[in-house]
UniProtKB/TrEMBL annotation, chains A, B, C:
SUPFAM superfamilies: YjbQ-like (SSF111038). It comes from the Bacteria. Coiled coil: none annotated. PANTHER family: UNCHARACTERIZED PROTEIN YJBQ-RELATED, YJBQ FAMILY PROTEIN. Signal peptide: none annotated. This is Secondary thiamine-phosphate synthase enzyme. It holds the Pfam family YjbQ. It comes from Heliobacterium modesticaldum (strain ATCC 51547 / Ice1).
Amino acid sequence: MRHYRTELWFETKQRRQLINITGQVQEVLRESGIQEGLLLCNAMHITASVFINDDEASLHSDFEEWLEKLAPEKPYDRYRHNGFEDNADAHLKRTIMGREVVIAVTQGKLDLGTWEQIFYGEFDGKRRKRVLVKIIGE
Amino acid sequence: MRHYRTELWFETKQRRQLINITGQVQEVLRESGIQEGLLLCNAMHITASVFINDDEASLHSDFEEWLEKLAPEKPYDRYRHNGFEDNADAHLKRTIMGREVVIAVTQGKLDLGTWEQIFYGEFDGKRRKRVLVKIIGE
Amino acid sequence: MRHYRTELWFETKQRRQLINITGQVQEVLRESGIQEGLLLCNAMHITASVFINDDEASLHSDFEEWLEKLAPEKPYDRYRHNGFEDNADAHLKRTIMGREVVIAVTQGKLDLGTWEQIFYGEFDGKRRKRVLVKIIGE
């Protein structure tokens, strides 16, 4: 069995931002040389997400509006967690979007459907945060 | 390490439909001959889900009602994504339900709890769509 | 390839309770002797969750309040599932929180970010329920 591990780092300019990381994850897979296996890609922070969806700008603004309705950022004092912090909403938003994706590796490629793109979902940004990619296989 | 890959195809009659695919996934595992490992089962479309829950008809109608409340289909123009398309709600519903499940394979069987059943969750159907099953192990 | 499997059992005193199981999962990994691979940790019940978030009590009460708003326990007759049962809300809450986590194993350790902690999320407790840990690797 072979294994490979790397981290991807991000520092967003906005509090909330969605970044298409499909190309970076493909590059990590290429570096690994693994042809068949499973690839795990997860946020290493509990206020961020790695998820798969469509790379379509108006859908992303629908996501923003929808998440703000399900788990509003403000008023900050609506959450007990927000004493020294102001990011309780980010913990909830990330819960909806998910921590991780597991992707099949087939013939050295990410085995994705036509429109599947991998995103880093930042919900409490403006600081350096990281994503783990771990691949096992042969 | 052994690996096995197949696709399952679905074409639902309704826009939204939940299909129990546990038997089909078990059959794929049997074909693979893998005894110990991990099985990934994911929707290859971004408006569909693979998830695990109970095979109980009234629970499924509760899911339908609940998802319609959290991410209503209509009016279509409530979502920016719905210019040429009308399926923004399906992207959101699938996000709640999840893209994928990872299941342990133990002694050649899906290592599931008593009531765990695997479902294909279609949220924008009436066309051919597919699910990936990838198994690695020995 | 090596593999290892065990179950963790829980019986909560409350209907809903979040239990930090990071130490127990680390102990399972140590027992397995696996140095590099992937670890799956999933609820074997469809009214419970395994998820990763922060071990912070006020955040946990925010989760409780938020889940009760998105999928209220009562009145029981708001859900069709609640004929002989009263736990439809638990199926929905667990869907939001997720069934499983997949964690990288690197140099014999759980490869987690600084604040990542693993939780068992019980939403229909007061009875014995279990979590599966399956590790594959080398």
